[in-house]
Amino acid sequence: MQREEKQLEASLDALLSQVADLKNSLGSFIYKLENEYDRLTWPSVLDSFALLSGQLNTLNKVLKHEKTPLFRNQVIIPLVLSPDRDEDLMRQTEGRVPVFSHEVVPDHLRTKPDPEVEEQEKQLTTDAARIGADAAQKQIQSLNKMCSNLLEKINKEERESESGGLRPNKQTFNPADTNALVAAVAFGKGLSNWRPSGSSGPSQPGQPGAGTVLAGASGLQQVQMAGAPSQQQPMLSGVQMAQAGQPGKMPSGIKTNIKSASMHPYQRLEEASVASDSFISPAPGYLYSPTSGPHGRLNNS
Amino acid sequence: MEAPPVTMMPVTGGTINMMEYLLQGSVLDHSLESLIHRLRGLCDNMEPETFVDHEMVFLLKGQQASPFVLRARRSLDRTGAPWHLRYLGQPEMGDKNRHALVRNCVDIATSENLTDFLMEMGFRMDHEFVARGHLFRKGIMKIVVYKVFRILVPGNTENTEALSLSYLVELSVVAPAGQDVVSDDMRNFAEQLKPLVHLEKIDPKRLM
């Protein structure tokens, strides 16, 4: 008996504190809604709701706690009803209930809902019972499925909008660009202006590029001839040679052409322009020839 | 014609073999500003330096299969600055723990008749480009953010077009051989630039 009483008291105290907290948060929420409605933001409203829901949850937990005796078994009976002000009661209820009279008691000590509400509830329960267990189960399942579909859609939408918003920010670099730039700086991929589309000669170097060359031996000869008089642009001929020199990019056919021409560019050019008998048979492959160097070149240009 | 890996050679000569440690990445044009701001905060306090350089790469085709490559660079916006000639060796592979690309590096400043000299020596220009961008320093680390422009008419540096919509970002250190701790510092710095730019060691041979 004693123990149960103690338990009852303890649980009542816990309940009381929980309800007080709930009341406070409700009060502050109402205040916020009434006074700060123009400054109110949805997240702050959500915060208040979250607080309330948390407190209700703890209230439920307290009620379900194993140490809580069944309040259902307790009965509250008013012993004295008087129309006089009761100071004690006022103090305890914080001024809300000044008088413990006939008007107050039915509201405060009510255990059953209103008659109309009771009617409705009875109606609902009979309806539910009428459907039958299977149909009810099916309805429950379909409801669950619809809810989960909806949730999924919302989540997906949220995720996509988030990533869509972030993606332009996230893409601060392009790995393909990195590779292209590094290749350009390391060995000139895409930089040479005779490669029409700017990347990789290895495909068909036999195709005539924009403005030059290398279609075949005759093409090679031709451009070298053309290169002779314009000696002030040593770059051009150098460029052809260099293209020939790209390791591993040329198929062998072209290579032989180049090999034959790679004796000495100046040598060829000299032959083309001026019949000169001062020269060289340099060692094959070497581009440098000591004898017919600068002077010969200058003469020709 | 390539020098053997430098770390195998004893240091007997008068010059110290310098190695270049390199990390590369890129940044899209629209994110350039944020990268510049971040670099200004991270790097040594100095006036933001911009540069416009014209680089020409010369090849000497020898009997061996791989040609000898020299890079000549000149400034287009700084009159009177000397030309710069650089040799970069093959990247030294093998050490997976090394976080940066390491290659032998020889730099020298030259006078203006560099191209003529190289042509006389037998070099031929392979390709050229214009680099326009910003330069930052942090201690011995050099960070360069530049855009590569393709030269449409050889020799004409006015008529250029951008190669891509990105800027190339390079973090490099030139240090004596054997100082691998430098690559750790570089990696730590590169961490600070993420996620704007991912600086990593990119092997150019993979991109051929």
From TrEMBL, chain A:
**Top-level division of the source organism's lineage:** Eukaryota
Coiled coil segments of this chain: 133-160
Bias class Low complexity marks the residues at: 196-207
The compartments listed are: Nucleus
Primary localization class, coarse: nucleus
In what ranges is there compositional bias, type Polar residues?
219-235
Q: What does the UniProt function comment say about this protein?
A: Component of the Mediator complex, a coactivator involved in the regulated transcription of nearly all RNA polymerase II-dependent genes. Mediator functions as a bridge to convey information from gene-specific regulatory proteins to the basal RNA polymerase II transcription machinery. Mediator is recruited to promoters by direct interactions with regulatory proteins and serves as a scaffold for the assembly of a functional preinitiation complex with RNA polymerase II and the general transcription factors.
Q: How does it assemble?
A: Component of the Mediator complex, which is composed of MED1, MED4, MED6, MED7, MED8, MED9, MED10, MED11, MED12, MED13, MED13L, MED14, MED15, MED16, MED17, MED18, MED19, MED20, MED21, MED22, MED23, MED24, MED25, MED26, MED27, MED29, MED30, MED31, CCNC, CDK8 and CDC2L6/CDK11. The MED12, MED13, CCNC and CDK8 subunits form a distinct module termed the CDK8 module. Mediator containing the CDK8 module is less active than Mediator lacking this module in supporting transcriptional activation.
Q: What name does UniProt use for this protein?
A: Mediator of RNA polymerase II transcription subunit 8
Q: Which source organism does the UniProt entry give?
A: Odocoileus virginianus (White-tailed deer)
Q: What gene is behind this protein?
A: MED8
From TrEMBL, chain B:
* Compartments (UniProt record): Nucleus
What keywords would UniProt list here? Activator, Nucleus, Transcription, Transcription regulation
Q: Which Pfam families match?
A: Med18
Q: Which residues form a coiled coil?
A: none
GO molecular-function term, one example from the UniProt record: transcription coregulator activity
What are the record's GO terms for cellular component?
core mediator complex; mediator complex
* Record has Glycoprotein as a keyword: no
Q: Where are the transmembrane segments?
A: none
**Among the record's GO biological process terms, what is one?**
termination of RNA polymerase II transcription
Entry function: Component of the Mediator complex, a coactivator involved in the regulated transcription of nearly all RNA polymerase II-dependent genes. Mediator functions as a bridge to convey information from gene-specific regulatory proteins to the basal RNA polymerase II transcription machinery. Mediator is recruited to promoters by direct interactions with regulatory proteins and serves as a scaffold for the assembly of a functional preinitiation complex with RNA polymerase II and the general transcription factors.
| Family membership noted in the UniProt record | Belongs to the Mediator complex subunit 18 family.
Q: How does it assemble?
A: Component of the Mediator complex, which is composed of MED1, MED4, MED6, MED7, MED8, MED9, MED10, MED11, MED12, MED13, MED13L, MED14, MED15, MED16, MED17, MED18, MED19, MED20, MED21, MED22, MED23, MED24, MED25, MED26, MED27, MED29, MED30, MED31, CCNC, CDK8 and CDC2L6/CDK11. The MED12, MED13, CCNC and CDK8 subunits form a distinct module termed the CDK8 module. Mediator containing the CDK8 module is less active than Mediator lacking this module in supporting transcriptional activation.
Q: What is this protein called?
A: Mediator of RNA polymerase II transcription subunit 18
Species lineage, top-down? Eukaryota, Metazoa, Chordata, Craniata, Vertebrata
- Protein's gene: MED18
